[in-house]
Design a protein that fits this description.
homotetramer; alpha/beta; Aspartate Aminotransferase, domain 1; Aspartate Aminotransferase, domain 2; 2 domains; 7-stranded mixed beta sheet; 5-stranded mixed beta sheet; 14 helices; lyase (chains A, B, C, D); PyrdxlP-dep_Trfase (chains A, B, C, D); EC 4.1.2.48 (chains A, B, C, D); lyase activity (chains A, B, C, D); Amino acid lyase (chains A, B, C, D)
């Protein structure tokens, strides 16, 4: 059945599968100490225009978020994020399982603002009882967000400034970073992200890879003995060369960006169709995720013909659904979907 | 200086200090395996009208909350409470440090409702993605609440019913239980609490003891090897007999209740004076805590003559302050305070 | 350069890479809710002769050990294992990071005995202070062990019996289970493991897969809400179908066993050569790992021609090295190695 | 019945109980922000001859060890200690519950040596796989030890030197520090401890107080936001002034040292009697704890007349018992015990 359920339902870009075949008879050192990880790191550093960036390759998003956030957040502190942030909603309490509270700010279109963050920190510091409270210790934002929206360059830079003013690193969850950067609605490059964020991820799982998230520490700020921290979190892949190989492929000939642009263009076509047909499109998404609010009846009708993501029951009569394109979405699938809407 | 800052600024009721002196030359087994703990447990069981209640004595409130909540909440689950709940605001993330998310409901006068709890659980269970979310695993309420308000017997019973319907135990934080039960505004007895809650605490620290919180498991539901769990949390006092002795004293001749009633009566006098003088009294507190909203200037003037608790900066021109009586508050202190208001 | 460094230096068996290509254009549900996971589970259940076995697929060994062990071990308890157990030595404290002490027994050839386990538990229970100690809460053994040795069926059954007598589940780390089961020195089948162990893993990473460990709960004893527990540990792969596909392939036409047998046979040839050449072979390994103790000079000479694993500096003049074959080892590589020895 | 079971069976020195009475009508700020904590800190700084020492007061020993050790040990690291160390044996895994492995060295009379520590660290650093292992991150020693023995000044200084050479702080658990320092067999002063250790505790619970452990950071090395860390561990006593008051009393007129000397002298008398009567005295204890190995029959006979501590079943026919004096032990009790032996 036609599916726009998510962006992780297909295996991998053919270039990646081909290279897997090509290296079938090679032997490589384990745990990321291989040439492909080195090559991929070099290419990412170049793409980031940051020769000092330190690159690590982990397997999955929740794993990466919990490993990195627990490593950069002091024991007495929590992670500040939008209430809609993935770590707060759909990671099963993985951050709290490492001992850190998630401190939420009300999100706007899935985003926090520098102003709200500053206000939160100022109030905290002014509170006479703040030594009995959880300190804001790091800041988590998603680019693109869980609702498909994006931060502008200025917005993200302002958040970073506030974070730094209050002694916190800024972590950017880039599980869908490609879809953000290639969106027409985004004014930011990978180099911008690398300049602004203290640490960010480049999601492979949702943008062409079988699996894998690249972690980029941008400011000579890699936590000490990070290999051991990654291992302790069960996040050190034995065959790390598989991660290196995939990211080396993704960052060859701009494949990562081309795959993302393809998905964004497909979403743009669908968005245009939705608007012209009078759908209630929620949020100001400009990336590969589109949220629509439809009646229960409409949702039931659609469910017979296409798999979509379920977001929430908005009220007794309406649900919010997600249409999600990916690097693997075909023009034919888009046509079929539009004809169903 | 006159102080109504909190209810833990004085050492202990004279009866307790006297008994400390009386046992000065005795020797007792350690870790709660002594006659006083046994005697105190018997008296609390009788006061609870629950012969099967299992009683433990720990030292402090945050310690007790974290130890018990982590023991009764499954690893995959969080603790549901009001956003104003002490574990969510002023325990430095102690619950999260044990790996559990605190799941908040918007509080009303510091309380949650059975309806809101049920709605939260129903929405959780209906959510297609709930296996990626933190399960509601236990329910935490404070009696009296952080704002001095109390749950009625019906309200608490309804919350327990909803909790049980969703497979969760109800934990009642009774750090100020005495002040709740002896309030004219409360329709509940200790036996009611013991019947309704799955586990609750009887706060000694704020009601006449030097320190100490009694934990009462009401339904043959003590977590297995709880001694070891308490020890692992650093919460097993070597000289446990000091806890037993204090609670034995507090539950002799209703001392615990008399001390609490005294503080509530003092607060009632102050509340009446505040109302007659036109103060803006926040919340519907009926216990020993009174929250007032005053101008910054008024707050500054008061601060020269009496120590009060600071709650929050309400807006640019106003602050919320707390007037807190205790078992040790004297009539003279109340008179002085009223004359200052 | 020739390498017998480890058994995770090659990508994957060609059958697995081929199937990855075949499904390139398919779309599948995420997180293991796909047909391949279902098919793989069915095949594993059949191979285990245990229709009730509950199968899960995780990514890596340390991740799997920490996730499962923390889920089956009570909060007040630790995990008992040989001092040479992987969780005690080379997993960066991942088990302790979940809050559980690792309780070690002196290993013999990398193995524990039922007698030693029973003695440990008896002493624990007899200790007057045991409530202040870490309870033995689960038992961890590796099959094959970190030294390439194997438990006999009787040995493992006896350990399980003792574990059960003391209320503990037996966890078998099967990161190299295939190499154990196909060894001429092993008298056990997969069905035996499934009958004896309460939960065990079938390692894919080291036996033909790109990555992946199957977890098998054998006695309707899957921890409640295990999906959420796995997610909380960052161990729920988005594209779970990649795990299902690999294990479906491995358990088609006995591929898993054939791959393992091939490696064991290669090791047998090498072992025979080592013995005939008078090497000091440590332990009684019968699987794909061979430990040899050589002089520093010999080690240096070998290092110029073949990559071997480094185990430890035995004394000032000698080191222990590991020769490790795998499913990917060729006859030519074995010939070359033997000629070097 | 006569009891030499432990050193925490009596309430407190009369000077402490008297001061509790004297302050009964006072009011003090909470959480250690009171004049008595200030005064006690000043007196301890003076006694330590370390004007920069930072003093904190916590309630119990296990709580203190876990709170401080987790704060000074990096996330990727463990705590090195003797296998007989209290944190390794009788604290219910409290350190592991904070996520840190306890790394044990074989103890000699309950002590570790600088040489063994250095060897352990050198081997760790030389191990090719050490990034997959738990780093040695801090060092824990007990003074006096769990067997009543003491480190000499040179021994402790050498351990500190090795610890510092390997980048680790030295933590000295002084639950029985007074009994160590006042022993004829100890050549160290409190000022020596303060000079050598990076952080140490001065145990009140076992030396005259109702409860309480003073934590001394000696080198401007208090962990950032330590108040919050203490609170997060449930270790911040509401009525902190009770801790301050007790330590102020103990450090007035050398009371702490006099109480300890009294217990040591009593133990010396008992030791002399044991030797003259031909008992098998284990370890080279010079403090208030004496370990004797007796036949089961003898142990049973003694048990009818005096309560002693049980250490372990040495073999089928013998047990090790502990005779423990305290600040509260009377000459009459010593006479009675000696007559029974």
């Amino acid at each position: 059945m036609l599916s726009f359920e998510n962006d992780y339902s297909s295996a991998a870009a053919p270039q990646i599968l081909d290279r897997m075949q090509q290296i079938a008879n090679e032997q490589h050192p384990g745990y990321g100490n291989d040439q492909y990880c080195q090559m991929a790191g070099d290419k990412i550093r170049a793409a980031c225009q940051n020769p000092e960036a330190d690159i690590w390759f982990l397997t999955g998003g929740t794993q990466t978020n919990a490993t990195v956030l627990s490593a950069i957040t002091p024991a007495y502190a929590g992670v500040v994020c939008a209430d809609s942030g993935h770590i707060n909603t759909h990671e099963a309490g993985a951050v709290e399982a490492t001992g850190h509270k998630v401190l939420t700010l009300p999100g706007q279109d899935g985003k926090i603002t520098a102003e709200a963050l500053d206000d939160f920190c100022e109030r905290f510091e002014a509170d006479a009882n703040h030594t009995h409270m959880v300190y804001p210790g790091s800041v988590y934002v998603s680019q693109s967000t869980e609702y498909g929206t994006v931060y502008s360059r200025d917005e993200l830079a302002a958040i970073a400034q506030v974070a730094h003013d209050h002694g916190m690193p800024l972590f950017v969850d880039g599980a869908r970073l490609g879809y953000a950067l290639e969106s027409d609605g985004c004014d930011m490059t990978l180099a911008d992200v690398a300049m602004i964020a203290d640490v960010f991820t480049i999601g492979g799982t949702k943008v062409g890879a079988l699996f894998g998230e690249a972690v980029v520490f941008t400011k000579r700020n890699t936590p000490k003995n990070f290999t051991t921290i990654v291992k302790q979190h069960g996040a050190l892949l034995a065959k790390g060369f598989l991660l290196g190989l995939q990211f080396d492929t993704l960052f060859t000939d701009d494949l990562y960006f081309k795959l993302a642009k393809h998905a964004d263009a497909a979403a743009d076509r669908i968005r245009a169709a939705l608007v012209s047909k009078g759908y209630d499109v929620a949020f100001t998404s400009v990336t590969n995720q589109i949220m629509i609010t439809v009646s229960n009846d409409k949702a039931a009708a659609l469910a017979k013909q296409v798999k979509l993501g379920f977001i929430e029951q908005v009220d007794a009569g309406h649900v919010m659904l997600r249409i999600c394109t990916s690097w693997a979405t075909t023009d034919k699938q888009v046509d079929e979907l539009i004809s169903l809407l």
